[in-house]
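Tip: read the tokens left to right.
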């Protein structure tokens, strides 16, 4: 069973959680903690985005021979026609 898209969207989930905590802290007028929650949330999102782009390597699939590779041109047939390949999300093939 494929997980739903909202379960895999970590930055959006962090924003939702930070908003809920903000409302709770706002009710008790804990402004310092409210600011610290958003600083921590934004720091986590920036670190998550930085790490996710550094780990992911660009895989491509050749449109001529369907070979998955990371080169500018296909190592099998030499074609430059390619499409981004991703196995885990809805982008690419």
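Filled-in amino acids:
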């Amino acid at each position: 069973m494929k997980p739903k898209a909202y379960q895999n969207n970590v930055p959006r989930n962090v924003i939702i959680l930070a908003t809920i905590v903000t409302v709770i802290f706002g009710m008790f007028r804990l402004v310092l903690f409210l600011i610290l929650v958003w600083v921590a949330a934004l720091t986590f999102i920036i670190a998550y985005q930085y790490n996710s782009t550094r780990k992911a390597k660009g895989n491509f699939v050749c449109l001529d021979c369907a070979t998955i590779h990371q080169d500018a041109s296909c190592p099998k047939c030499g074609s430059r026609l390619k499409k981004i390949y991703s196995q885990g999300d809805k982008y690419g093939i």
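The first strand starts at residue 60 and ends at 62. The two ends are 18 Å apart (CA to CA).
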